[in-house]
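This part of the workshop introduces the protein records we will be handling. As an example, a complete record with its sequence and its structure tokens follows.
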Amino acid sequence: MKSKTTLKTILTICAIVLISFFAQAQKTDFDYKKAALKNNSNYYEIVAQKRAEFQSLRTNRTLTRNENKAYKHFERWASFWKDRVDANGAFPSAIEGWRNAGLLDFDSNANSRAAQDLNSTQTWINIGPQTNPSPNGYSNPPQLGRLNAFWRYVDAGNAANNVLLVGAPTGGIWKSTDNGATWSPKFDTYAGIGITDIKGSSSVVGTPGVLYASTGDWDNGETLNSIGVFKSTDMGETWTMTGLNYSLNNGKLTGHLVVYDANTVLVATTDGIQKTTDGGATWTEKFPGQTDRGFGRMASFGTNVVVCDSYDGLSYSTDSGETWANLIDPTGSGKIAITVDDTGVFYIQTGTGQLKQLNLTVSPATATDIGTIPADYNAQQGYNMVLIKKGNLFIEGSVNGNTSTDGGNTWYQSLNGYWDVGSPGEYMHSDHHQAGYLDAGLSFWNVNDGGLSFITMDGAGSITNPVIEYKSSGVIVTQSYTISIDPSSGTNDNFMMANQDNDGFSKEGGQWVSVAAGDGVCSAIDYSNPAIRYLGGTTGALTRSTEATGYTGNLNGVSLPKPNDAAFEWPLSLDTTDPTIAYGGFDDLYRSTTISTNDGSTTPWTENLNSGVGKVEHFDNQGPNLAVIGETGGLKYSTNSGASWTDINLPTGVTGVNSFSINAASPSTIYCTAKGYVDGNKVFKSTDGGVTWTNYSTGMPNILMKKVLFKQNQTGEYLFVATELGVYYRSPTVTSWTKLGANLPNVLVKDMKINYINNKMYIGTYGRGMWEINIENNTLGVDELTLNDNEIKIFPNPVINNELHVNLSSSIKQADYVIYNIVGGQIAKGIFNKLSNKVDLKNSASGVYIIKLNANGKTINKKFIIK
């Protein structure tokens, strides 16, 4: 009762806030990130207000590209926090789960370790993509993923031996010892594996010096807190924590670094500037009394340093960071890009695109407007801002990149994230995060939402059409929302990935290809015909492949209209017994029986199942059994394909759940995962369709749950849970939750799928691509007694005339059987009590199936084909 009352209160608050702000919201200027930092801030109120702003705009017109990008960033922020906030909408620390899992100790010192299943000899294997997918005709194709930082050691004798390091917001630090030809990860065993900046102590060619890395993701702003500053003395091969760390109750965000020498370093933090003079052992606050400012981007020249904060302030020091003064007071909104040219003159670019030249030789220092604002400038509230000044050349990077050779008076779009034939400039992935000098002349580096690129502007015409070399192929940092597999083959080499910022990847015929989606949020593969594939974009956008090989040759596919807007991240699933039927979560749960043949002229979503939960956040389907979660907390269950619905109750002590998994063989058995950080309330089981629940949380650390998955049609109970720190499992003999497998980075897992043919699990991670592991029962600590092949005979195979014959040996008096398809969908079940038996399969589609038999306390699985 308490949980339901709390949920009702939350919904009432949201409704009141939505109504009050809807009438006055005229533009998207409410700073939701800043609002979230205030004492007693409420997630539900903030989300309601911001959504009201966007809805107000939509009632009058179509959103512009810049407004759509702002909407995406807001919804990503909302998605990050929705499972973390408590029942009253209060924000926890973003590092809470890492400490609870033992990756941070009581004082938040970082422990380098990869917790793993000690009962399993299995190892996670990354299956990619490990290089950029084929453009597939895409003029501005997706790439492997976002990077924030870059550092390079120049080999004086051979450029092919240059050492490169990059840092990703959720993918850690990567190193190349061959100038970018190959890469390997170097930070996977730490919590969070988010990197804001990397700087070295030496600028002398051939001298590597000492490296420092600041952690978190300052550009994204307060969604991934820092675990401090790290140090490497072996050119990035290994990293140790310095004395700068953050306690659980004082989590901060670190920004850029200034490294003077091996011992002297400045780092920007949420509340001020920290400095060390002893190689990171101790740190001293050098800009005390600063709160709610969010210092981040910095640049230095000699003893002069300039730093910006999250709220349009600008501060400077002329004595290597010992003392500071405000140059621009923190009274506005937005962030600032900072650079210094090779003569020591500082320049900034504000969130509106205005260039300013700084003069630090006068007291107080001044900032003078210069030049004009580029026509297409869009910093997305400071998420992406870079600036370079060299000689007469300015390069600015926001969504796209513009160049000027006359002091910023006229601009040309040189770096175009939306490049197509006839467009200005050259293609470089949009959203720029850092950039700087590379070599003599006009050569530069740039890290953006697609990776690392080198830019060369030397030579005639190179300002308007620079040479761009992508350098981070092999840096596997893709942020995936969902994955799909083709389980029809035991060698499964056909996949789909729906990715943040980088559209969709589809592996077809052994090759990854690009698929258009903007932000891909959901996907599916027809398990009876893997050439039929689906990729969903935000708010309900959906395409289907058109070619015999999938999306190869047609990256846009056929657009399938939606019935109504869905949530930003919306769920899609094919029926587990008939792949021509699909379910989609829009303003309610919908069913389609024509999705595989619809020509796009009308919506295939013709059946609104009227579950009553509103916009759908998640659902699980097993045959006619459906369990649905609404965006505002409604929970419903149906055992007849949505013809009627019953309420699902919340487990005791839980204020919200975010995933369900149904046992197809016993559909009244449902599993769920709980939202938030409530120790001991993580996973639950119901045997009465969600009326009552049993707590199944023993052994699970108090970390974020993302998805529960029940392994169908097994003799015992096998469960898996995707979390913010890998995958956990429990089995009939290992009933306390245990970390699954070795070699998986400490990364958020967003999605899981099981291939029942090859007994493998596949996962999509948010920052480290797609992985697989063997989950045969005996690898999970369970030794099952197995029937001998001679005791059970099935024929013919392939099946003829829709009849499968099963012969039992004389030693078997009775055998229970279940027939299921390659996605775990149950086709038939029963009992054999004769030596010779047959099963009628006339209503089953063509494909691969598995019959599981249990007799005399033993079990056996046999595959067969229906053609």
